[in-house]
Amino acid sequence: MNVEVNNESGVEIDANGLMRLSRFVMSSLRLHPECELSIKLVDEDTMARYHVEFLDLPGPTDVMSWPMDELRPGSNDSGDDADLPLGHLGDIALCPTVAAAQGAKAGHGTWAELELLTVHGILHLLGYDHAEPAEKAEMWDVQGRLLEAWRAPGNRLGQE
């Protein structure tokens, strides 16, 4: 799985950690092993501009996602990747300074918030949403299970 992280935020972030997490999530959701994802870390001004331009909402937000090839989680239980669609999953923009404020407020810190936002963004790229209560319950359930699996001892790809 090809994950590209471009940090234009001015904040030092573990790009390799975001790549490992993204690959873990994509693999867990049975995406084609050659699918692609782009993550861009941006400052608050850039995120505020994206927020207005794409959603007509003021101020910076934490994460935004732009799906590309409308990929969906794989349901192939045979373990054969041949039937999984190949493509570019999409692009995610993360704002580390917004994540830092949210992580502090939630009491789990910046990195845990960036992990949550990365998983959240990937789920949006795969068609998950949280506009309706039932959709939100499903998305939060999948998001929680993925984060729990990622954070479990011995389960993290490339864990040092």
Write the layout of secondary structure elements.
Layout (H helix, E strand, L loop, with lengths): L1 E6 L7 H14 L7 E6 L2 H12 L7 E5 L20 E7 L1 H11 L2 H17 L7 H19 L9
Parallel strand pairs: 1-2, 2-4
Antiparallel strand pairs: 3-4
Q: What order do the SSEs take from the amino end to the carboxyl end, as H and E?
A: EHEHEEHHH
The averaged pLDDT comes out at 90
Could you say which overall geometry the principal axes of the C-alpha atoms support?
globular
Radius of gyration (Å)? 15 Å
**Low-confidence segments:** none
Q: Give the % helix.
A: 40-55%
Distance between the termini: 20 Å
Largest sheet, spatial ordering of strands: 1-2-4-3
Main beta-sheet strand count, sense and barrel state? 4 strands, mixed
Number of strands: 4
List the total number of helices.
5
Strand content is 15-25%
Query: Which structural class do you get from the secondary structure elements?
Result: alpha/beta
Cofactor: Zn(2+)
Keywords: Cytoplasm, Endonuclease, Hydrolase, Metal-binding, Nuclease, Ribosome biogenesis, rRNA processing, Zinc
Binding site for Zn(2+): 120, 124, 130
Function: Single strand-specific metallo-endoribonuclease involved in late-stage 70S ribosome quality control and in maturation of the 3' terminus of the 16S rRNA.
Report on the architecture of this protein.
The chain has 160 residues and is an alpha/beta fold. Helix content is 46%, strand content 15%. The chain contains five helices and four strands, in the order βαβαββααα. The protein has a four-stranded mixed sheet, with helices on both faces. Helix 3 (96-106) packs across helix 4 (109-125).
